[in-house]
Amino acid sequence: ATSDTSGGFAFAELAGARRVRVLAEHDERGVVASAELVLGDEPVRDLVLALEVAHTVRGRVTTEDGVAVPEATVSVDTPAYLPRSAVTGDDGTYRLARVPSGPRTLHVSARGHGSVSVRLAEVPTFVDEIVDVKLRKEADIEGTVLDADGKPIRASVHACDGKDAAHRAVSGSDGSFRLSRDLASCPLVAVHDAYAASDPVTP
Fold it and tell me: Where are the extended beta strands (E) located within 27-69?
C-alpha cells in the first residue's frame, strides 16, 4: 500500500495471514518496521509507524592492486525482514539504499577472493557513506596427479565437469597442475586414458 498525503494507509485484506510485520520505506532516507503482529478477529487495527533515519552506503570493490572486482556480493547485517544487499557492477561499484540506523557491518565477498567485513558509522547522516573495499585475490589451486603406484603422471584435470576450457588443466610430467581459485567450489577429477577417473576431490 502507499500512504496518502496525511500518512494514512490501509490493507483491505490479508487473506490467510495470522502473523504479519508492516514495513514502511520512503525515498532514500527513511525506513521502519513494526513488531510482528498477531491478527485476531478485530475488523480494524490502528498502527502508527515513525520513519527512522536511514542512509545510503556506496563505494567500489577492488583487488589490492586497484583492479575492479565485478559480481562481488555486498550486504549489511540487517534483520531478515529488511534485507540490504547488492552485487557490484563491471566497474566494481555498489550502492545500498535505505540502510537502517544503528551499528551495522558491511560484508563483502567475491568468488576467487577473500572476504572483508567493515564496521559502518553508527550515526547515519543524510550524506552518503562511501566505503571502498579491497579484497585479496586468493592463490590458484595447485595439486599433483599420481598414478596407481603413487608416481607422478601427466593427466587431464577437470573442474565443474570440465565443460569449459577454463575448467580444465593438464598436469606436467611431474604431475603438477594449476587451476583458477574461482573453481574452488567445484570437485576436481583427474582423467587418463589408461586409468579409471579419480574420485572427486573438493579443494
Answer: 30-33, 37-38, 52-63
Closest by CA to 99, choosing from 131, 134, 61, is 131
Contact between 37 and 81 (Cβ < 8 Å) = no
Which 3 state secondary structure label does DSSP give 147? coil
Under 8 Å between Cβ of 61 and 34: no
Task: Give, as one character, the DSSP assignment of residue 71.
Answer: T
Q: Encode pLDDT of 112-124 as tens digits.
A: 888 999 998 876 5
Q: Say if pTM beats, i.e. exceeds, 0.90.
A: no
pLDDT in tens, 32-47: 777 777 777 666 667 7
108 contacts 74 by C-beta, under 8 angstroms? yes
The set of cell numbers assigned to 56 is 545510503
